[in-house]
Amino acid sequence: MYQPMPLFVGLRYLRAKRRNHFISFISLISMAGIALGVMTLITVISVMNGFERELRERILGMISHATIQGVDGRFPDWRQVVLDARAHPRVLGAAPFIEQETMLRGRRTGGAMIRGIDPASEPEVANILEMMRHGQLEDLVPGQWQVILGVGLANRLAVRPGDSVTIFAPEIRATPAGVVPQVRRFEVSGLFEAGVHEYDSALALIHLEDAQRLFRLADDIGGIRLKLDDMMRARWIARELSEELPGFFQVRDWTQQHANFFRAVQTEKTVMFIILSLIIAVAAFNIISTLVMVVTDKQADIAILKTMGLTPRRVMAVFMIQGSLIGVIGTVVGVILGILLALNVESVVGSVEYLLDIEFLSAEVYYISDLPSDLRASDVVRFASLALVLSLVSTIYPAWRAARTEPVEALRFE
């Protein structure tokens, strides 16, 4: 009795046993539709976030968060720059490197990217130790001409650890027999698997000093790879470094190197969000149909309330409260179910696979054989807000129609 009149009547209509049970059924369907839409949105976007995180970590495990390179492709006096970069409070590690596209020949021939690294400092910027499938990074000793291949590249060249591969440098040298390419025979000392086709099938690692000799760079390098304390702020940290470091350098972050890939992932997430939001929109249309039928069923009640002094604005509030409550209940249930499912999606999928005796993501086919989930509070708030706004908007027309009810016309045949 102490509640405002519109809230009291709206709650009364929602709880009351109606003569028309079909209206009650439509209300339950609307709640279930909103709950299903919110739950599906939270779960699907969380799984897509998980896949994006896995791909980002695997890619960044090979390319680093940021890169410092010379403007002409060569980097003299790089040791002091490494020390200056490590002194930056946001930089966790720095490692020199040389990269060059060239040809490799084992039992078969194929193109690849040769990366010269320093085995001592490379683990500071990459997760290469976790990716090793055969051999160790320490096997790369200067002067012994060892190479570590991606598993896909090794298969393409038809070589195994212990076999030899010939690397053709892009430089040429003049001999009495004519102009010949610079070549060197390397022994395959190990294999790595990053889980990203771009690197597993087209990347080979050699020692930094061997790369300097092979490509005739003297003491120069190609650039410096950096690991930052917050990869999501790599763009701003890279900009700070470019302003603080002495000399002319080009500082690029991982978002620039793989901008198209991550933009495509973001586009897929946006499209999926729009498609799944249609489930909530359909449930919102159900709220419109429910309230229209309620307004039609309660014409006499509305007329009596208006003759007792209830203003049209408060009549609108009655039905807006009723429809909004349907949306709130459905949203709350959907958020709870969505969070529970997103946090336990791997267990749920594992149980389904066990019951049906199937495997959705075979490890022999897919690099990511499970369903990673990354639940974010911002996504939950965004989806819940969308459901609540659609629920509120869907109540406007039926409430406005109820407010226009004429008491004389509604009570004429009562």
Question: What topology emerges from the helices and strands here?
Answer:
Layout: H1 5-15, H2 21-63, E1 66-70, H3 78-86, E2 91-105, E3 109-117, H4 128-131, E4 132-134, E5 146-150, H5 151-157, E6 164-175, E7 178-192, H6 197-200, E8 203-207, H7 208-214, E9 223-228, H8 234-244, E10 249-253, H9 254-257, H10 259-297, H11 299-307, H12 312-343, H13 345-356, H14 377-394, H15 396-403, H16 407-411
Parallel strand pairs: 3-8, 5-7
Antiparallel strand pairs: 1-9, 1-10, 2-3, 2-6, 2-9, 4-7, 5-8, 6-7
Helix pairs in contact: 1-12, 2-10, 2-12, 2-14, 10-12, 10-14, 10-15, 12-14, 12-15
Overview of the structural elements:
The chain is an alpha+beta fold and 414 residues long. The chain folds into two domains: 5-57 and 261-411, no CATH class; 72-247, no CATH class. It has 16 helices and ten strands. It has helices at 5-15, 21-63, 78-86, 128-131, 151-157, 197-200, 208-214, 234-244, 254-257, 259-297, 299-307, 312-343, 345-356, 377-394, 396-403, 407-411; strands spanning 66-70, 91-105, 109-117, 132-134, 146-150, 164-175, 178-192, 203-207, 223-228, 249-253. The protein has a six-stranded mixed β-barrel. Strand 2 (91-105) and strand 3 form a beta hairpin. Helix 2 (21-63) packs antiparallel against helix 10 (259-297) and helix 10 (259-297) runs parallel beside helix 14 (377-394). The two termini are 28 Å apart. The relative contact order is 0.18. The model has no long low-confidence stretch (mean pLDDT 79).
